[in-house]
Amino acid sequence: MLTVTDSDTTVSRLTTSEREGEFLAWADRLHMGRVTPTADITQFSADRADVYRSFGWDEDLAIKEDFNLRNSALQEALEAKEEVRLLFGRSLGDQLKLAQLCFWLSLSDTDCLDRVFLKVGQNDDDLLRDEGFEKPSVEELESYRSFWIAFASKDPRFLLGTLKSSNAVLAKAAERLLQEYPSSENGLSLAEAQILDAVALGISRPQELFDAFQETEENPYLLNWDFWAYLDRLCVRKSPLIECANGDDFLCPPKDLAWDDFYAQQLRLTVDGKNVLEGKTSYTELHFGERWVGGCLLKRESVWYWDYASKTLVRELCVPELTR
Length: 324
Prior knowledge:
By secondary structure, this protein is α/β, with parallel strands linked by helices. The protein folds into two domains: 2-177, no CATH class; 182-323. 44% of the residues lie in helices and 11% in strands. The chain has 13 helices and ten strands. A four-stranded parallel β-sheet has the order 2-1-3-4, sandwiched between helices. The protein has a two-stranded antiparallel ribbon with strand order 5-6. The termini are far apart.
């Protein structure tokens, strides 16, 4: 029996709990960087390794090798006709991983799905309990498969269908994903708005900001390295929204393991940051940096906005003060 779960940390906890079988971490920060629509999981792993290299997080060859070993372990279990358990949480990150797995499994021999069991835990302790695994219905597998195809698409409007899914956990994850598109009110994603709010309240050091940010998320899905990338994006553009209080350049990620210097940084809002947060201007009207949300590239001249009032994606800013 093979249990596929969200992270090496969960694998470690499952191993020490003396659970039966083998455990495999499906570790990928799918909400960060480009996601390609390829059905070739080997090519997908190579593409994701390039994404990690672009963030400066690790050597791309090492990441690619880790992904290929992970893929092979799952494929070998399927070929050996082992029972495969998918064990994930409710966060956006976990639901994206689960969607990718359901998509890939749907491309395998149909009889392998008869040996797949699923559990979506409510919290970390729930993930350690051995009960609660059920064979997913055809409809449930299809909902995850469709979510993945929409996520990897160039057109984010396909994601809107998941908001109406009967799978409430998946629908909530889809909405949280769509909230990472620029808001039609000020051009900020929800995560960016939460970060600016915290800085405006006087929380200035990176670790304190991360801790405060995590408390704003019902189902936290960012790791600290993901969060540092968000801070970096807000600090280093030509029109930064956040800056170091002493005028130095923001240090991210820590260079030469300069952790003391990194954690000692104090951040504050720039004038642009205050104006965006107060709705006086839109982030996308400034030097908006290109970024990917799944398969969709967002750039200044081609932006999809998330409209909170109508819960849909639009092409134009919706605040009168910004469109006059």
